[in-house]
Amino acid sequence: MPRSLITLCMAFWLTSLDYLISLAEEASTPKPNILFIAMDDLNDWIGCMGGHPQALTPNLDRLSQTSVFFTNAHCAAPACNPSRAAVFTGISPNHSGLYSNNQSMRAVMPTEEIIPKTFMRHGYHASGSGKMLHYFIDAASWNQYFPNKETENPFPRTLYPNPRPLSLPRGGPWQYVETDWGPLDATDEEYGGDYLVTNWVNDMLSSKHEKPFFLACGIYRPHEPWFVPAKYFEPFPLESIQLPPGYKEDDLDDLPPTGKRRGPNRYFAHIRKEGQWKRAVQGYLASIHYADAMLGRVLDTLEASDHKDNTILVLWSDHGWHLGEKQHWQKFTAWRACTRVPLMIRAPKSKPAICNPPVCLTSLFPTLLDLAGLPAEEKHDHPSLKPLLENPKANWPHVAITHLDRPENYSISDVRWRYIHYQGGDEELYDVENDRYEWNNLANSPEHRVVLDKYRALRPKDFSPYRVTGVQELKQLPLRSTEVAIKNSNPVGPKLTVTFLNKTENPVNVHWIDQQGKAVLYFQIEAGQAKAQLTRQGATWMITRTDDKVLGHVQIESTAAKVIIDHLP
Q: In a 3-state reduction of DSSP, which class is residue 455?
């Protein structure tokens, strides 16, 4: 055999051997586990982010010191449903058409595969507990869940005061019934809620697993209502409470008309009128402290487990929260107080670091696939964060975009600048490096015209229309007369959405009938308007005129439906 042919054969054999050895090493290397922890409605009021000087979060702080801590992370949308849908599908709201809490994720995206299902397809065991999606579980996407996935109810038993409201009187039918707070005379175990969620997650972490696992932990606090055991209130005596450092009384003066309308809402004015501002801040701080303690239980269990060295840990919050900044309460805004969220990622090969480039939570799905060595999905809208996990100072030519409740309403977050655009063309521009709380709108400043033009040019290319989720095709539930109405609710089935349509010329009030037969005012619907409401099979709702005259009752059945109110006797 010629020497050249022998040499060629030897080279081919050595190359093939190297390839086989690499395949064998890959096969022998176990896939990393994933612990995916979400906290609900948590803004930057944690010690390591410095959002409030009284925040007490030792466990979040210690996790930030052992993770790549993203200090400039932003949600895809400032509301639970679109934010979580974007995280779990990797699809941004401007492409999915899912912008608000009033839409059904599965009605808008009926077939999109979510994170646990994808990992199941690649040989993982997917389990979870607590709120991960917006008030449903998506049972087919998990191997195991607590509470049982078939219930589609992600919440275990939770202790609440009776009667309610405890602290904040209802200001009217516009007020969310869960806007309330106060300490409970109960132990963690008696309280239930996130304590039971973390108990179940800890059992999973302490167990042996034949497959790599994707384990989700949904910590519900500090979502309203801010009721937690009294011991979590004790570090925050009411007389010592400091109001939000980002509050400025005349902060709306330099905003365009749309911004001025987006800012003030009835909640903040009502809370101040009732003298409850400091108590509300106290309740939020206490709920964060409680959530942090529940996180600590999970971190301790992971550290003591056999999985600690081969588990990717991701902690995120779905969006921030206003407590008076911009005269606003709740979420639903494009300001930094609402879009900026905690994000910490600890991977087996990553080193602890602080990472300042702007990132979006929509990147979490592709990041997990990348870290697990799984193929990327073309449908994902945002890049993997793996380059930043390997080098937090790596070149990152991206901004973070947050979408509000309708197309063309969005914010762009960069390292130094933040730009807000509203439908109709109103704009805001902030130098957050020198103006942390966005007190000075620079959009009308001639010397910032070049900066403004730069961010105008980064406008998203496409905006899917707001997807109306099939109201015309929904089954219509009968509005029963008072004489034959079922007075008491028995909400035992899965959660679903019912849309109430007021086709009269006057506002109507909608009440839930609780298990004791008491009517609880939930909201008011103006003439000609509609309201989508999450409820449960077996629940009963009552419709009244504004003078409390009963128009009728409706009992919720097993599917999404509509209720048409078309006459006022």
A: helix
Question: What is 475-565's CATH number?
Answer: 2.60.40.780
Closest by CA to 265, choosing from 172, 135, 180, is: 172
Contact residues for 396 (Cβ-Cβ < 8 A; gap 6+): 357, 358, 359, 387, 388
Four-CA torsion 304, 308, 311, 313, nearest 10 degrees: 60
Tens-digit pLDDT profile for residues 355-372: 999 999 999 999 999 999
- The per-residue DSSP string of 233-277 comes to TTTS-GGGPPPPTT--TTTTTTS-HHHHHHS--HHHHHHHHTT-H
Domain residues of the chain, as ranges? 30-403, 410-456, 475-565
Residues marked as catalytic = 80, 134
Distance of alpha carbon 96 from alpha carbon 495, whole angstroms: 22
Q: Is 359 helix (H, G, I), strand (E, B) or coil?
A: strand
CB 37, CB 379: distance < 8 Å: no
**Whole-angstrom distance, CA of residue 414 vs CA of residue 454:** 11
The single-letter code of the amino acid at 541 is W
CA–CA distance, 359 with 343 (Å, rounded to integer): 9
Give residue-wise pLDDT tens across range 216-257: 999 999 999 999 999 999 999 999 999 999 999 999 999 999
Q: How many residues does the chain have?
A: 569
CATH for 30-403 (3.30.420.10, 3.40.720.10, 3.30.2350.10, 3.40.50.2300)? 3.40.720.10
